[in-house]
DNA sequence: CTGTACCTATCGAAAGACGACATGTCGAAA
DNA sequence: TTTCGACATGTCGTCTTTCGATAGGTACAG
């Protein structure tokens, strides 16, 4: 269907989360969603229905782990941070992403 | 799950098909699949379960149309070619793709 | 004490891609 | 002449990711 609303490419949410954790350090889910929205611009709203399942997925993969803590706003929150495996996974996902975009670029650049 | 096998980004198949038709002209499904595999390298196998539903989708959108013909190998084949709307759609999808990749690049480039 | 922003979570639906399967044709080799 | 492999189109069920809706809960300001 028409994709006027598509903001971040399908399947890249994991990468964006992992990369954010790598860049910023430990974050909780809500802040993560806010950051991704912010970096992407006002038009994007990242729903909780996306972020939390993704976080659960990443934790199950063993790429992030959880510790309960207290936020800057004094609320009980779940902090996520990269594991060792997660740190490696960021590199893997970046490599995959770049390989994939290179493939598409090959089509866009093809003149014959 | 783990993405060791990911080849072309999810959601870009339409773009690759449309762009191939724009570049090469009319093609049949099987040749299209072969071309995409070839451009992407040996590792990718584009299954029929992907290409034919995509072609049906694109035809329903009005971006491609069909004429029956005979292939170089003397078989009855369905040739697809871009419609006027399809020609415009290629540009739209390329713009969307570039916007989306720019967003991801913003994360990958962020150092803070 | 009431509303608002903050925060975590689940559910069902939609969509794209895939593997497996079904069906059939052409030409060449055995 | 039968059989086999490459060519060619298509469907079906399943998996995964994402989203909107919904729900439950806390801290603080007014």
Keyword list:
homodimer, 112 residues, DNA-binding, alpha+beta, Arc Repressor Mutant, subunit A, disordered N terminus
Walk me through this protein's architecture.
- Two copies of one chain form a homodimer.
- With 112 residues, chain A is α+β, with helices and mostly antiparallel strands.
- Chain A has a single domain, classed as Winged helix-like DNA-binding domain superfamily/Winged helix DNA-binding domain (Arc Repressor Mutant, subunit A), CATH 1.10.10.10.
- Chain A is built from four helices and three strands, in the order H-E-H-H-E-E-H.
- In chain A, strands 1-3-2 form a three-stranded antiparallel β-sheet.
- In chain A, a hairpin with a 5-residue loop joins strand 2 and strand 3.
- In chain A, helix 1 crosses helix 4.
- The N terminus of chain A is likely disordered.
- Chains A and B meet through helix 1 and helix 4 of A and helix 1 and helix 4 of B.
- The first copy, chain A, binds a DNA duplex (30 and 30 nucleotides) through helix 2, helix 3 and strand 3.
């Amino acid at each position: 269907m028409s994709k006027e609303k598509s903001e971040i490419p399908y399947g890249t949410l994991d990468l964006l989360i992992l990369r954010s954790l790598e860049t910023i350090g430990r974050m909780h889910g809500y802040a993560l969603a806010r950051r991704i929205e912010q970096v992407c611009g006002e038009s994007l709203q990242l729903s909780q229905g996306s972020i939390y399942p993704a976080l659960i997925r990443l934790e199950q993969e063993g790429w992030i782990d959880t510790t309960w803590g207290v936020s800057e706003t004094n609320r009980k929150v779940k902090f996520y941070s990269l594991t060792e495996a997660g740190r490696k996974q960021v590199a893997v996902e970046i490599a995959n992403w770049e390989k994939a975009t290179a493939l598409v670029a090959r089509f866009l650049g093809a003149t014959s």
